[in-house]
């Protein structure tokens, strides 16, 4: 830690020499981070790789890390916490994956071509769309209502050498009078990738098609009706660090929205949405060369939901309220086929047709105390209910919980307060928060869910109490004429912390598994997340960025929690002049010494890699051509990180080229 403090002091000293304004480079008044994602905004021309996957774009966040089980569909962590403890939405819509092994996070069902940005909120700052512990991630679609009148065409294509990934996409935007519509499609097809030193990673291929459309009509000067649909279909997806692959992951996401923007001193915006999404997920082991027993593991998730958000202001108060709710059905099966055809098939519900109903209200008041200071107060109250609709599934769980009822309801409160102060170039803030969450479907009702990371089968516990979070956060920022720096620190004390504890009285189902873990709540756990962001404009054409991240997580026995970031860093040197841009990037992390074998972790060596790219923009008549090419992992390092499932090696040297034509 002494070395880290010394480094921070050097950074701050060096950056005290600036010549040009950097105020547009860092927002120090917020604990919310906005990442530019889409390919339909001019800012995409400054991205390292314009046709990156959504997962690759999210890696830029100083709050998000990603668990990688293959080359596709990485699970986002916020403040070191996985999807049970966070909320991930698309335009405010709640969506739940259909895979018991988390092979299909919400982020896997969208594409960069239909997104404009991703909003990352830390801790209780992210409770607008539902109760959370670690924070939230909202993926926002492109807004075509702001487009100019007439037609607009896109063509996107790219190629990546390492895994022979072919990328083809396109879109059509049209606006006439009060009517507008946007359509786009993106197709990706990739073979197995090669890790450093040309080591081929088997079962890392994937194929993905994403199609989306958004259309709207301006009913009046202050009213807009809009409908949208996203269809995503992934096939032949390999997961090299898991025992099974995926033959199909398919989602249909639909919504209808009414937005009212009155010219009114009190009411500024009123947006209401109805939505429906359905997901089908099929795990497959038929392409694996050696399987002890063949299994089929399909899963389904259907969600109906709504929200209504009102924003207004009076005097020194900016107020918003969100009333939201959803109904979700989660069902997953497992059928095992014995090697001897004369033996009976074995069948079970791994998710016993769990129906979840949630309704909640979120109220926020941002009170401007003076020109320099403000106080934000927010509270959420949610009602959450689970119902087991399958009698067979209920009876299966009653083997372990004889008194189990088919319905369990609970209330989920949260409250937070944040004080912000800004004067001239200095900004600081601190906050306190409390929140609760309900157990996930897997934690509450999972039945023999195999975890290949620690080699245990997991059984849910419907009697779990709400997990509670007590949060303290702090940030400090400085914006000078030519440089900016921001330090953020958040401490979480989590009581009734839910995790799996071995149960030696129950035998595992999976052949070769170490045993059974039953979800249990320990007394408490703590997580301390810290990050530093520095931006410095060397000249009108050169900019330097740096980012540091370090997490500490402990349980009530002072043992490390899983997936806590060691000292991780990234630094980039960027050049922009006329229609050229270039980026040189170095990133890596220190050795992961705070690991815990109880969760399947081991000591992960330090690594550092180099990426480089160059882009050129060409305008001809009414056509915009953007060419972007580069190389990732320039030195072809063979490495894996602390979030790589079962030490899955990352991709080696990869040359790419992306072309965007508008």
Percent of residues in helices comes to: under 10%
> Quick one: CATH superfamily?
TonB-dependent receptor, beta-barrel domain
Q: What overall geometry do the principal axes of the alpha carbons give?
A: globular
CATH architecture: Beta Barrel
Q: Give the tally of structural domains.
A: 1
Largest sheet: 22 strands, antiparallel, barrel
Given the structure, what is the number of helices?
A: 4
Poorly predicted regions: 1-29
The total of beta strands comes to 33
Q: CATH top level?
A: Mainly Beta
Strand content: over 45%
Radius of gyration: 25 Å
Structural class: mainly beta
Mean pLDDT value: 90
The rounded distance between the terminal residues' Cα atoms is 49 Å
> Any idea of the CATH topology?
Maltoporin, Chain A
Summarize the structure.
The protein is mainly β. The protein has helices spanning 2-14, 54-58, 391-397, 441-445; strands spanning 32-36, 64-67, 75-78, 86-90, 93-94, 115-122, 135-141, 150-160, 165-176, 179-190, 194-195, 199-200, 206-220, 223-237, 245-260, 267-284, 294-314, 317-337, 346-368, 373-388, 407-423, 426-437, 449-451, 456-459, 467-479, 483-502, 515-537, 542-555, 568-577, 580-589, 607-620, 623-632, 654-661.
